[in-house]
Write a structure and sequence with these properties.
CATH class of the largest domain: Alpha Beta
Helix content: 25-40%
Strand content: 25-35%
Protein name: Toprim domain-containing protein
Shape: elongated
Order of helices and strands: HHEEEEEEHEEHEHHEHEE
Oligomer: single chain
CATH topology of the largest domain: Dna Topoisomerase Vi A Subunit, Chain: A, domain 2
InterPro entries: TOPRIM_DnaG/twinkle
Number of domains: 2
Length: about 250
């Protein structure tokens, strides 16, 4: 299906009607493995390893705007090509197309597109990575951010939510240009992370080592030693932190 869809898209020679105004070029769509059917644009849902695990259609005649080709398929997150590069920070994004356009304009990060605010990424696949969260600025998006943070922490992650935009990534790229989205991402992802295992009460000493702005801080209890609580202290910051482990 995807191979035939790619041939149809190449033969069309332009961005399909249902994908216009979203910031994509024809080259983007072909590089991402998108295709075309009489119903609409085919979106391959990629695994963390880059393998298609399903196909979603952005329909030309909505509603519904989307449907899966495989009946009954569970909503699976979309992973940007090259996601497995562990040196890249990861941005979890509400919406597969928002993640897709972000991956084209800002290859300095990996992106996970979640199919709607009610769903979640595979947190296990994000362990050991520097993780950011991006959702729409509406009530559903705010609820998603709160839930994602709670879920992520249960997997040992400490993600940083990005400031919400009035428009989603595709709308920003389509309305204001790809450079506008690139600039937002470059600024929004310009944070460093640090952590340390401490005795409770030593957090302030760690905090004082940070020369700059702290965006988010968290303390997680780990156990007891010598009658004192042991905690993991983590912080997102801009600036320098002499003597601390930073990434």
């Amino acid at each position: 299906v995807l191979e035939e869809g790619q041939r149809r898209l190449k033969a069309l020679g332009r961005v399909p009607e249902e994908m216009r105004g979203r910031g994509f070029t024809l080259e983007d769509l072909l590089e991402l493995g998108f295709g075309l059917t009489p119903e609409g644009t085919l979106i391959p849902v990629l695994s963390p390893e880059g393998r298609p695990v399903g196909v979603k259609v952005r329909r030309r005649q909505a509603p519904p705007k989307y449907r899966y080709l495989e009946g009954g398929m569970k909503a699976s997150p979309w992973h940007s090509p090259g996601f497995s590069r562990e040196d890249l920070p990861v941005v979890v994004v509400e919406g597969e197309l928002n993640a897709a356009i972000a991956s084209r304009v800002f290859p300095e990060a990996a992106f996970v597109g979640v199919a709607g605010a009610e769903n979640s990424p595979d947190w296990k696949a994000l362990r050991g990575r520097k993780v950011f969260l991006a959702a729409d600025g509406d009530e559903a998006g705010r609820r998603a951010l709160a839930r994602w943070q709670e879920e992520a922490r249960s997997f040992g992650l400490f993600p940083l939510p990005l400031p919400p935009l009035e428009e989603d990534f595709c709308e920003v790229a389509g309305r204001y240009g790809r450079e506008a989205l690139k600039g937002f991402l470059a600024s929004a992802l310009d944070w460093r992370c640090t952590e340390a295992v401490l005795l409770e009460g030593e957090e302030e000493a760690m905090r004082k080592r940070i020369v700059g702005k702290v965006a988010l801080e968290g303390v997680e209890p780990l156990g007891w030693a010598g009658g004192r609580r042991v905690v993991r202290w983590r912080a997102w910051f801009r600036g320098e932190a002499p003597g601390l482990l930073v990434w």
